[in-house]
Write a structure and sequence with these properties.
By secondary structure, this protein is mainly α. The protein is built from six helices and no strands.
């Protein structure tokens, strides 16, 4: 069981943005929940700010996803969830 986990950290900001949009949330909403400015949140989605594990977990909680879903984005999971809820 020597699987190597490959995480492309450059994709995490765009994954956060994709999930936020799928869930119809605004940057302002996430920024308010994180107690930061919208501009600071925008920098997270653009990849201009380094994410800590703590911040990643906070964002996952707000987006109501597991942190690993931000690390390994699988669009099909979200499409199925949307179909089930709609």
């Amino acid at each position: 069981m020597n699987e190597q986990l490959e995480i492309n950290v450059r994709e995490i900001p765009s994954t956060i943005k994709k999930i936020r949009k799928i869930k119809c949330l605004t940057q302002e909403y996430l920024a308010a929940k994180l107690h930061i400015s919208q501009n600071a949140y925008s920098k997270i989605e653009l990849g201009h700010s380094k994410l800590t594990v703590e911040r990643l977990c906070q964002i996952a909680s707000i987006l109501d996803v597991k942190p690993n879903q931000l690390l390994y984005f699988k669009p099909a999971e979200f499409v199925e969830a949307l179909r089930a809820s709609g």
